[in-house]
Amino acid sequence: MNVLKAKVRVLLNLVATAIEPYRNEIVLIGGIAKYWYQVCDGYSDTGLIPTATLDIDLALPEPLYLQGGDTLHQRLIDQRLVMIEIPGLDNRTATCRYYLPGIVRPTADDPYLECLVPMRGPDRTAPGIPQGPPLVASPVRFLDLLVHDAISLNMPDVGTCRVPHPLAYIIQKTRIRSYRKPAKRVNDQADIFYVMLSLRSQWESWADKWVEWREHSTEWAAWLTSTERLWIDLYADEQSHGTTAVHSVYPSMPLPDIVRILRRFRRSVLPSPPIS
Description:
It is built from nine helices and eight strands. With 276 residues, the protein is α/β, with parallel strands linked by helices. The protein has two domains: 164 residues, no CATH class; 111 residues. Strands 1, 2, 3, 4, 5 and 6 form a six-stranded mixed β-sheet that branches. A hairpin with a 3-residue loop joins strand 7 and strand 8. The radius of gyration is 19 Å and the shape is globular. The termini are far apart.
């Protein structure tokens, strides 16, 4: 985790203390989660440096029941974190972010914590409110995948946190592509490739998870089918968007190697015959 900026480390340690009674309920997701995979069984140092991140994302269950006598919000405030409401993308709703002590007007360089819940409702855009105001969580697509088979990993100096199953992490970051800004899409592909390659010793065991998740529901089956098609399109050849995105972040990785690795990954994880 040496690439994490000092301020992110400070925030992470404060958050780790705050969530202590909730560790079995909360899942650490987003860009920060990939650092936990470094202590996962089968992790291999590929020489790739994980992309930097400034935000810490916590996936919350609905509802989030009271643990240890205090709400999650109160425990975050007890660590002197500063809650600031940020306007939502629709300019009607707001979400809460928690910043380091002393922050009044956050800048783009200030790390923050954000709480997230699955999208609900007929249009899949309605957020849940796990403990009610003042903690307002942001709705995220396909969050159900990230929390379904979460694993517990112990990071030195931070402690044990639940993070998404690595395959779920890869699937969700692939599936949200169309909802992301261009710069985010590039980093997402780099994160996918980093986790995928670092845990290549687990690929064959992930094949069982793929089958299991396809059978979970018709909705999940559709998610996985669309993910498989995206993998084909994004890494079809050396000029495909996924291939060039990974290469732009990791220029030491030759374009043909990126295509070859993704094809091998697909053959290992996906049922035979895969979509063509």
